[in-house]
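Q: Got a minute? One more chain.
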Amino acid sequence: MLILSRKLGESVRIGDEITIRVVELRRSRVRIGIDAPLSIRVQRQEHAILEDCVGQIDDLSIGDELLLGVASDSD
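A: Always. Here it is, folded:
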């Protein structure tokens, strides 16, 4: 992991297409702005984790439906 220090208004570039800029500093928070192409998905980590969990639950639900179908077929 690369760790950098940036001041208000300074930025970091990732490749040719992504720029991350410090836009606001508060006591315990830093607000950042991210410029990236629309083809690159940018989201907060907690949202990504939530989506992964929901996807796993959906996968389990599909599995339950399949099991219920097998159980009803054997009756």
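A: The mean pLDDT is 82.
Q: Perfect, thanks.
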